[in-house]
Amino acid sequence: MLEVRDLGMRFGGLQAVDGVSLDVNEGEIVSIIGPNGAGKTTVFNCISGFYTPTGGSVKFKGDFVHTFPDYRISRLGMVRTFQHVRLFSRMTAIENLLVAQHRHANTNLFAGLFATPSYRRKEQLALDRASYWLKKVDLLNHANREAGTLSYGQQRRLEIARCMVTEPSILMLDEPAAGLNPRETRDLDELITAIKHSYNVSVLLIEHDIGLVMGISDRIYVVNQGRPLASGSPEEIRQNPAVIKAYLGEG
Amino acid sequence: MKTNNIAFAFFCALVTAIMAFPLLGLKMVSEGTGMIIQGATASTWIYIASACMMVFLVQLFKTSLNSGVEQFKVQLSRLPTPSLPADQHVRLEKWALILIIGLALAWPFMTSRSSIDLATLVLIYVMLGLGLNIVVGLAGLLDLGYVAFYAVGAYSYALLNNYYGLSFWICLPIAGLLAATFGFLLGFPVLRLRGDYLAIVTLGFGEIIRIFLNNLTTLTGGPNGIPGIPKPTLPMIQTDPEFALISLDFSRSSREEGVVPFHTFFGLDYNPETKVVFLYLLALAMCLAIIFVIRRLIRMPVGRAWEALREDEIACRSLGLNRTAIKLSAFTLGASFAGFAGCFFAARQSFISPESFTFIESAIILAIVVLGGMGSQLGVILAAIVMIVLPELAREFQEYRMLMFGLLIVLIMIWRPQGLLPMQRPHLAIKEAEHA
């Protein structure tokens, strides 16, 4: 579904990403790992359209999307979270989820002003979908609280829920377990697995928590200093000498 | 620590003295063809000395003063925000709104002509404040040139009436549309800008419009302005000889065809005050319409998108929101409300000139929005009343107006940075859904 070929990103004199290729098939959980500063997030930004890559191509559902503006890519069904939580912090949890459904909403000004039946139906639908996902991530009791006042773990979950209400076909998570305690990480593990199985959504994951990555990934790509280092199943990666060297340093 | 304080306080006092000495202590007096420098009078020296003393004392006791302010702040924050359950708050706001509307309707029949006039002015600023609230309060785009759209609205009525004789009611939507068009046009180049840069560009735009109007003498009369703009009329259906749509105006006698004086139509005695009351009620009706529209907008997808854009632009993009469209819609809609207000302003004043659309107007409107609480409608109404009525009440202190203005804003920013009545989040009732 997602095919990235020979992706390159250059910032001035710095080649941040060089020749990264990866595939994500339907209903797959794929992880990208690598040491800090390896260019994982840059790869994410290139795929999701925040950067226009300086080389290579990104093909999503048959379209070459690497020249599309970011909002068009996400409308095609590719949504992402961020390394640092980016919620609309002064809006309530449920409003966060309603905003995310903007493209499904009836944005006709007059329909809204006069509250036509079709407008009301769509708003109710959006509200239902939002409360469904709030319940899924166990935040229904906090629906009308401002997102900024939620705890860190709750904010993380809300961000994932906000992606899911857009009904994506691929969900990109940038270090979703960062800052979570072991219990919350376990919940996250279950949530991601549920997303894959119940909603048939592919997941592309950047994560440092190796336990989480090894447990849920179907395939893993390793990048180091912007270059692809290895790829394969969790078992293959675990035993790859190049990966071990990159992580532990050269002796 | 203590000696340090004294040294610093002394230093501050010294700086004050150095600043004050040449500015106040020396005077240039012309003598014959030349100028000589003269020392100031004894009383000026006393003023300077006491100013230095005051700076010294304030700096010396700064910490205890600050803690006093802190204490006061804590107490203040405990005091005025009763934490009601959210649905109760909504009900409270509803009742407050109904009460305000009732009071506003009764106002012209209880007070004098001058206070009705003042109230009409307040209503104009409420309209402007509500419009700017969309751009600044909701969408978070700092617009310092909002008065430009006000000017566009006013001049579109004045010019269309002057050259084509169009009436107020035809010009009102045109003024709104034209202002919206200008908002749209301004929106394009500033799409990529945020914060300070946006503020500078919009500030420039406001000045461009004013200077343009000032210099386009052949069309707009330049600084002489446009006089003789007719007051709005009241459309009415006539039934007597035959069915017809006629306009009622509020002059003693009418020479125009199809226009009948209000008092003759209703068989009343001529009362010059009717005109003032009518203008007030018209402004009130426009205000209520705008309040209704904006209340809806806030709860609509586009309103939520504005707020989301204010909160986090990057997250918006990642969720498929087209920020170009959202920013443009905020600019366009915000500008159109200023256009309506401008059209009404021109009709009320009967005379407009570029003088009425200076930067200070933008500043006042912005102050209303910030003072009231970004995004809050009741806040804007309250702040408009405060900002327009206070200077009228304090007419004797005319020279200190700007000083008080600044002081008020500083105090509000210290004690209630979220504004007088901060915006309340709408509470959404949730019923549990089974399926997504």
In the CATH hierarchy, what is the architecture of the largest domain in chain B at level 2?
Answer: Orthogonal Bundle
- The span between the termini of chain B is 65 Å
Structural class of chain B: mainly alpha
- What's the main sheet of chain B like? 3 strands, mixed
Short account of what is shown:
The complex is a heterodimer of chains A (251) and B (436). Chain A has 251 residues and is α/β, with parallel strands linked by helices. Chain A is built from 10 helices and 10 strands.
3D architecture notes:
The complex is a heterodimer of chains A (251) and B (436). Chain A has 251 residues and is of the alpha/beta class. Chain A folds into two domains: 1-77 and 169-251, Rossmann fold; 87-167, no CATH class. Chain A contains ten helices and ten strands. In chain A, the strands form two sheets. A six-stranded mixed beta sheet of chain A has the order 6-7-8-3-9-10, sandwiched between helices. Chain A has a four-stranded antiparallel beta sheet with strand order 2-1-4-5, covered by helices on one side. In chain A, helix 3 runs parallel beside helix 6 (152-164) and helix 5 crosses helix 6. The longest helix of chain A is centred in the middle third of the chain and has 20 residues, at 117-136. Chain A is globular. The mean pLDDT of chain A is 90. Chain B has 436 residues and is mainly alpha-helical. Chain B has two domains: 2-66; 86-227 and 285-415, Orthogonal Bundle (ABC transporter involved in vitamin B12 uptake, BtuC). Helices cover 67% and strands 6% of the residues of chain B. Chain B is built from 17 helices and five strands. In chain B, helix 11 runs antiparallel to helix 14. At the A-B interface, helix 2, helix 3, helix 4 and helix 5 of A face helix 11, helix 12 and helix 13 of B.
